[in-house]
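question for whoever is on the cluster today: can someone run the full assembly for these? two chains, 726 residues total. i dont have access anymore since they changed the login thing
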Amino acid sequence: MKENTKIVVDSSASLKKWWFERTPFLTLLIFLFFIITLTDFLLGLFLIPPDITLFRSLHPYYHHGLLPVKKAIATWGPIAYPFYTNSLGMRDTGIVHVPLTTRNKRILLLGDSHTEAVGIYAEDSFYGILKKAGKQQGIEVLNGAVVSYSPKIHYLKAKYYLEKLKLDMDEIWVFLDLSDLQNEIAYETFVPHDKNVFIKAKDKLFRFLKANSFTVNRIEFICDSRNYARFTAAMSEFDQQRGREYRNNTIELYRVFFHDFNDKELLQNPEFHGVGQWYYDSSFIQLADKGLNLGMENIRLLDSLCRQRKINLTLCVHPWQIQVMKQDTGDYYVRRWADFCKSQNIDFINLFPVFINGENPEAAIKKYYIPHDNHWSEQGHSKVAQYLLKYMFP
Amino acid sequence: MKLHFMIMAAIPGLILFAFLFSGCSSGGKRNTEALINQINDSTLSAEQRTLLLAELGTKALQETKDTTLWPDYAQLLLSAGYASSGLNIYRDEMLKHPDDKELQAKVVNAELACMIIPGYSKSYTPATSQVYYMRELETIRFLDEKIADSPYDPSLYAIRGNCFIVIDEESAGTWELKKSLALDSCFTDALFSVAVMEMRKMKNQESITSMRQLENCIHEKNIVPKRTWLDFKAFLHSIAKTDSLIGLNPGIPDYYMQKARIYAQGKEYELAISALNEGLKASPENGKIYAFRAYVNYYAGNQPEALHDLAQAEQLTGKTDTELSNLIKGNR
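^ ran it for u. tokens below:
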């Protein structure tokens, strides 16, 4: 009897115990996690500077792009400039909401860093000038271009906008240049896939942690620095001046498009990075042609997509400095694209005469290009815009 | 007890980690003035300057209240050769301060650096050098149109080449002269300009070769040589003669003086100064060379350098050259 009473007393005592008293180990683990997380986020609050440059991101369907609705500061070499993205994740003159459907005529520009307009305020870019001119005529011009895009990504992005987002558009203008030869080779193995809910949530969580958790931020910084060092070491023979002691903002962007590229041998070949010379180098002419053929295949796909939806496709080619120096408005690259467009019945605009027109090439480069760079200055963008206006809004 | 210890260890550990790695994230807290001084540091590598400029630009975009940051950034961009970006900022500033004359002068200079013919307001009076530069740019623009119409006329390239050389766009000028000679290998004006350019680059032997080529073309085409060609040939031979004398006796300062005198007579002041600098290397305490360099610097428009050289000359010789002193100081 005595024994029984004791058992009853013991059992009532155990019922009254709190959960944390019953599981002290787990409780302390949770407490530890809570304290560490709190400390980590507090440190993050004070030590992580606001990342005003975070507006680019990888994309599972079209490789990489821009985050929507962002007000940021971009840098290109020594030039810092404001960067805005609209609700569709396109560079814009401000944070703008773009409806998916519209009654107005809508033109989508697709291109690489030239069309994104690196180093230039959006208003001064050829896109900005065309947008302003279009507005007066009730025509909407959107800029879907991003650094290191090439025909494959143009096709995938257009497909994404048309099929996934159901974005209304009447015309697509694609801007191509020599860099596409290399980009197409680098993207050859890229396979697009849909961004499911889990990937979206994972991306959001990672971005949140990177911006707020000191530990995640630092680990990411260290990993990224290592990757950068590995990449610059791979291409160091090509560019011995840069990318060693200091992280160079242009190389940081350049390495993004090698994200899925595994040909280490090619990556370490200095000539591989000098795509501007491929056509003048007998050992690289085959690679140049491969890039060009891949590009044409992807433009063919884009053209077919456009024809299905009665969207007019226009293709423009523009020169690099080396091509301006050669003073040939119809070089091999231009001829190949012109012939391709003729055979496919695609509208073609050659922008070489904008820069090769009797002006001194050295002076033209000084005026229309950013120093030591293949991208246009404000004057270059203005000249391209003036030339395109008569074709876009005849 | 163990967990208690873990908590106690983890928190200081995390704080220590923060201190160790906080340097990676506090780059933005650099003082602006220190940043500008760093950018102006001549020992800085081009890549480092580029990144610091980007940092300053980012600061200027973030700290909109600091109105001095933008013009400073524009000036530094211009100095680094990014004239178009600098000009863009100046033009924005001009919209805020339309009556600022100093800013207007900066806009005009930036436009000229971008090879744009400036469109300044009527209230602004451009400096002589700016007017001079604008005239050359206008001629170049006129020739651009002419060349677009007649792309195979060597004379147009030669004229445009000389315009570029006048405004110190040497590589553009060289391209024009080469183009002119590619169209007509005996185009005398282009050959003469090439010879002058080579002389200015102190490539006297190449210059003499170009002049010989010019002479051959004169005979071949049976044309009357221009007075300037003959004068230049004589000038070039005098320089070559002193060069050979210097080569034989590099320690004699008079030869450097002689060379500098020939250059100065040909109004090639920079080359004259360069010859005198060489002379000072051979004879560092030579008051005569300092006095002559003061004279050349004065005519080259380098007033502070002229005064400095005059003082050095007076100190070394123990005499005052009244005529030279009046010339330099009278124009102060």
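summary bc i know u wont read the tokens: The domain at 249-330 of chain B is CATH 1.25.40.10 (Serine Threonine Protein Phosphatase 5, Tetratricopeptide repeat). Confidence is low (pLDDT under 50) at residues 23-29 of chain B.
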